Amino acid sequence: MGKKIVIIGGVAAGPKSACRVKRLLPDAEVTIIDQDSLISYGGCGIPYYVSGDVSDEKELRNTSFHMTRDEAFFLKAKGVTARTNTRALDIDRKAKVVHIEDVHTGAKESIPYDNLVLATGTKPNMLPIPGADLDGVFTISDLHKAIAIKERIARGEVSQAVVIGGGAIGIEMAEAFSDLWGIKTTILEFMPQIMPRIVDWEFARMLETHLTESGVDVFTSEAASAIEGENGKVRRVVTPKRTLEADLVVMAVGVRARSELAQAAGLLVSPMGNIVVNERLQTSDPSIYAAGDCIEVKNMVSGKNSIAPMGSLANREGRIVGDNIAGIPTKYKGWIGSFTMKAFERCIAATGLSLESALAEGFDAAAVTTAQSDRAHFFPTEAIIPLRLVFDKRTRKALGVQGFGPMGDAVLARIDAAAAIIGQGGTIDDLSQLEMAYAPPFATALDALNATANAADNLAAGRLRYVSIRDFLAWMEDFASHPDWVALDLRHPNETGHFVERYGKEKWLSVPYIEIRDRYQELPKDKTMLIICDAGTRSSEIQIVLDYLGLSNNLVLGGGFNIIRRMGVAWWPN
């Protein structure tokens, strides 16, 4: 036999590195150790199993050709020994052995290795609040928990659920409960917005509005202070503002690395508890590698290290580990934070940094928001996809892109394209000139991503001046906050009539886009005009016209009313 390769962890990175090593070194003796009975499953598919989109949990463990990835599959199809229900107790680096224990019998033994791979994953955070240990309080940590949740729902034991945490997992679980099962569901998020630090406030607000319209209650800036029960079972969640009845509670408040084995073995671990690796995913012991959710990964945009718990990254890292063990020098560059997520009939996606995160990292950052068509405007299925590009004003470097729109591939296509550019350190100009495939059923001739980059170019060059959506909404709620502001609405009179009637001609000027050049002398010189259209495109053009005509007292509402109408504002006409 060749090399002895031992891998601790059997969900994503572990099996990937095992199979890659075995393909490159057919004579290697490869063993996977996992304390669970279920291995190599698609953990990211758990919410869709609970919702019923995936009918059977075995589908999460099956290959694309419908074989279940269990011990027999790994041995017969891959030549890899998978030892489930086996706990790794400790690592003797000097002797190069792993001490293990059978979780059922308690029998102990030692397994020697030439190379060891730590793919121990993460464990979910639990809030230290009263009632967190009640029956019916779950975390989404493994497939067993998902099966237990679905069984309770199927038995009719759950009519009301509370999800604590407004990140991706929390939102996906809320949809799973509400959409198919009709469970009254509430999301609690202690930060001021859902998906904090991942997307900016405007995009979080559009998502929150859609969740609310789909029947999920969302409370932000509100933390759970206690969970109460009866006869040992959960019955309600208490916050400083309200009490929410609940038969089931999901805590989705983040994860932390399972690095206890690494720490006990004296391997280098970050202050946050993540296993430290080099570019070849070696730990501080060159014969030991680590991959997946347990490692510290460099963000290629910020340059900072952090945990990156994503199945897509874990699989790529597993392959890189396999290459290096087999003697193929391969480096892992890091990640930029790309994600996409379904929420009822909408999807939200992002790559790189949000504006909030970019500013916190010290970038001289700015952002533009557009509301472009996902395909030719004359095509019957055309829809609007708001996009946001975050960039550095000094270097013009692209830092991040966010997207929101109908379910489908339109948003994903733009985010993936942006990720490729951002991952290479690209600029506004690279995105502006990026060649995108075009046909009317799929895109516009000037793609939505190109158009967003062009808006960023105008802003960076001083040809475009914005009023932020947050500031505009604050003004709409209290005109006295900026008494010198007026709206200049370029839309058709049929669209502007409601606003003129409600707010008066002094606050709401209705001058159609096509008439501005003939009627510009009617416009005020002593007021700041907030130029409004549906998407912001006409507004940007008219800003240049007005500047040329000596009326530079104006700001553009980026994204226009296509963004506003998706945010659930109280004053929007029904």
Quick take:
Helices cover 28% and strands 25% of the residues. The chain has 17 helices and 30 strands. The strands form eight sheets. It has a five-stranded parallel sheet. A five-stranded parallel sheet has the order 9-16-10-11-12, covered by helices on one side. The protein has a five-stranded antiparallel sheet with strand order 21-22-25-24-23, with helices on both faces.
Q: Could you name the key traits of this structure?
A:
FAD/NAD(P)-binding domain, five-stranded parallel beta sheet, 574 residues, alpha/beta
Structure notes:
- 28% of the residues lie in helices and 25% in strands.
- The protein is an alpha/beta fold and 574 residues long.
- It has a five-stranded parallel beta sheet with strand order 3-2-1-7-18.
- The longest helix has 15 residues, at 311-325.
- The mean pLDDT is 96.
Q: What is the element layout, followed by pairings?
A:
Blueprint (H helix, E strand, L loop, with lengths): L3 E5 L4 H12 L4 E5 L12 H6 L19 H8 L2 E3 L2 E7 L4 E6 L5 E5 L2 E4 L3 E3 L12 E3 L3 H12 L5 E5 L3 H12 L4 E6 L11 H13 L3 E4 L5 E5 L2 E6 L4 E3 L2 E4 L3 E3 L2 H5 L23 E3 L5 E3 L6 E3 L3 H15 L13 E5 L2 E7 L2 H6 L4 E9 L10 E9 L5 E9 L3 H14 L4 H5 L15 H13 L5 E2 L1 H9 L7 E5 L3 H11 L4 E3 L5 H4 L8 E5 L4 H12 L5 E4 L2 H5 L10
Parallel strand pairs: 1-2, 1-7, 2-3, 7-18, 9-16, 10-11, 10-16, 11-12, 26-30, 27-28, 27-29, 29-30
Antiparallel strand pairs: 4-5, 5-6, 8-17, 13-14, 14-15, 19-20, 21-22, 22-25, 23-24, 24-25
Helix pairs in contact: 1-8
